[in-house]
Amino acid sequence: GAVVSQHPSWVICKSGTSVKIECRSLDFQATTMFWYRQFPKQSLMLMATSNEGSKATYEQGVEKDKFLINHASLTLSTLTVTSAHPEDSSFYICSARDGRLGVFGQGTRLTVV
Amino acid sequence: GQNIDQPTEMTATEGAIVQINCTYQTSGFNGLFWYQQHAGEAPTFLSYNVLDGLEEKGRFSSFLSRSKGYSYLLLKELQMKDSASYLCAVSANTGFQKLVFGTGTRLLVSP
User: Fold this and answer.
1) Is B102 in the A-facing interface, judged by CB distances under 8 Å?
2) What one-character DSSP code corresponds to residue A83?
3) Nearest to B1 by CA among B20, B21, B28
4) What percent of chain B has pLDDT over 70?
């Protein structure tokens, strides 16, 4: 079946630094990918829709200058958390649609200290 | 916009049957998904409904009523490993067919 690979699985960074998370569709092309954030014991909250070759579409309340999304190819989207703060610590998950099915990456646990 | 509601927590015993409900309000409905998520892991696909009725897949079944904006996930012969969160997600045919998730239901299966 379709596989989405997300890297890194976990990362610890210092407050004020930036962190890049990669999301790759391994055996299918994804013109659209989705980025979610999940806080402990909560559901997935859609942050933005990543579109190959164009600007991302952000959900209401998500700062586009803080969460930079680049979708440079049909198999790769990146999310960069800029000037990270402890409140950005969360589980970030990407997803790509393979036909009707949403396939999820493994997720990235970000801890900002 | 979309509004999706599920119970926060449910408990059940091993071998029993449990039904997890999901109600939704959305424009441009294009399907409803159920995912299972264990703590610290990504969601895994369980079922998909786009037409009214029941979809059965082994121990798991999912039902949809579009007119009522209602779905449920039925889990039979519960096992301890079924303890997880169950996420209801709705796909809209507007924009990029994004999946919007409900609040999620944490299911605890006890011996």
Assistant:
1) yes
2) S
3) B28
4) 95
